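step: validate -> pass
step: tokenize input -> pass
step: predict -> running
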Amino acid sequence: MDVDYNDEEIAYPIKGEALVIRRALNMQIKEDDVDQQQENIFHTRCHIQNKVCSMIINGGSCANIASDTLVKKLKLSCIKHLRPYRLQWLNECGEVKVTKQVLIALAIGKYSDEVMCDVVPIHASHFLLGCPWQFDQKAIHDRFRNRFTIVKDGKTITLVPLSPKQVYDDQMKLKKESEDGKSENSRRTMVREDHQIWLNLNH
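step: predict -> pass
step: emit ->
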């Protein structure tokens, strides 16, 4: 693919607070050589339905993945997966059966796209673009600077990752929000249990 860098659009990560999601990755901040990101996972932020969402691009993934949390929070409509399969995922769920798909409309700067994703309980991000997206878009990965360049509607667009510190800060916020959510869920569970005990005692 011929890339014309003279007409290149740079798509920086979206600014703002991301939707609540559980934290699953530990980050080590490397403040020096922020442009040398060849050892880092590509993290960015995007808009989905005008909400700031976290996004990972990982060419090692065999599927495009949308978090079930994202689907629930944005009330996205799912369809049945034509070829359901089982996935051993890196979270507390262990093996999960993938039975649903969802069409994600995303935007980062002047880059916009629609991507069909499998719905999975992923906790590291709201959604993940894998090798299907990379192949479909003929995306070129600059591994040294950890940037993805694509040609969209005749324009060259380069997706720029968050800095390691930005990723770390996002993960810390997600961890805190997750812990706050757990506390609230525990409180609600206790209220339901107390109510059930009261019902049992009065019947």
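step: describe -> The two ends are 74 Å apart (CA to CA).
step: cleanup -> pass
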